[in-house]
């Protein structure tokens, strides 16, 4: 089965965002992956509401918004109003994660939880039935273009088991360092969705690259 592909615009040309969105609209990409960084949870600052709203106005696919921010509860409604379709918060950033998930759903979005490379998947066992997506970080969050952490394969397998055991409908998204070589093994291990920034936007042919990531056989 082909994977869902979510290009991360973090590696795109911000001086020509309109062309980037037009390109992704006509590509086989499924979601737009938008990385929001606050300079506190991660050592980098990316973009916020004005940029997301501008993208939402012309995007023809759901916005998969990955919040790398502390205390995300403060902004859940605002992300809905900005156009988010899927909203992922970090496990490590939420004290009352169950409440945060309820809040995301209450605002009419799909709820995702992102976990850092050091966070074991079993910590999700009491919330996995309530969420739509787990974003497994395969690099330490904060920057595009980093090297894929191989241990992520074990986490995909364990997470898949947890999802089966609990009959959860959560999809497994892998985020960071996804490339033309690891895409197929990741899909075979159980990944449902692949985020790709650098691989798509440094490609001489992003449309072909997206097509390949979707179905790398
Ligand atoms: C990292 C972000 C990723 C990143 C992926 O903090 O969450 O979405 O942009 O970029 P690549 O594919 O270049 O690793
Ligand atoms: Zn991301």
CATH topology: TIM Barrel
Count of helical stretches: 8
- What is the name of the CATH architecture? Alpha-Beta Barrel
Can you write the helix and strand succession as a string? EHEHEHEHEEHEHEHH
| Through-space gap between termini | 10 Å
What is the helical fraction, as a range of percent? 25-40%
Radius of gyration: 16 Å
Low-confidence stretches: none
Major pleated sheet: 8 strands, parallel
Round the mean pLDDT to the nearest integer and report it. 98
Q: Ions, cofactors, ligands: which are bound?
A: D-xylitol-5-phosphate, zinc ion
Question: What key phrases describe this protein's structure?
Answer:
33% helix; binds zinc ion; 217 residues; alpha/beta; TIM Barrel; binds D-xylitol-5-phosphate; eight-stranded parallel sheet
Task: Tell me what the structure shows.
Helix content is 33%, strand content 20%. It is of the alpha/beta class. The chain has a single domain, classed as TIM Barrel. Strands 1-8-7-6-5-4-3-2 form an 8-stranded parallel β-sheet. Strand 4, helix 4 and strand 5 form a beta-alpha-beta unit. Helix 2 (49-58) packs parallel to helix 3 (76-82). The chain is globular. It starts with a strand and ends with a helix. The relative contact order is 0.18. The model has no long low-confidence stretch (mean pLDDT 98). The chain binds D-xylitol-5-phosphate and zinc ion.
């Amino acid at each position: 089965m082909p994977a869902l592909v979510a290009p991360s615009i973090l590696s795109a040309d911000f001086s020509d965002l309109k062309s980037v969105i037009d390109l992704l609209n006509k590509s086989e990409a499924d979601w737009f992956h938008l990385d929001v960084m606050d300079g506190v949870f991660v050592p980098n600052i990316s973009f916020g509401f004005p940029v997301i709203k501008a993208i939402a106005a012309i995007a023809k696919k759901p916005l998969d918004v990955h919040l790398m921010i502390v205390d995300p509860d403060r902004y859940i409604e605002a992300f809905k109003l900005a156009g988010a379709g899927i909203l992922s918060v970090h496990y490590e950033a939420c004290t009352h994660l169950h409440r945060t998930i309820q809040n995301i759903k209450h605002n009419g979005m799909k709820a995702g939880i992102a976990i850092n490379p050091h966070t074991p998947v079993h910590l999700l066992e009491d919330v996995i039935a309530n969420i739509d997506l787990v974003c497994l970080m395969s690099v330490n969050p904060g920057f595009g273009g980093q090297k894929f952490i191989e241990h992520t394969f074990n986490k995909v397998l364990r997470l898949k088991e947890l999802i089966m055991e609990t009959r959860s409908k959560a999809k497994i998204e892998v985020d960071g360092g996804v490339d033309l070589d690891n895409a197929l093994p990741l899909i075979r291990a159980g990944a449902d969705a692949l985020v790709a920034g650098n691989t798509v936007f440094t490609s001489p042919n992003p449309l072909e690259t997206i097509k390949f990531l979707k179905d790398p056989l």
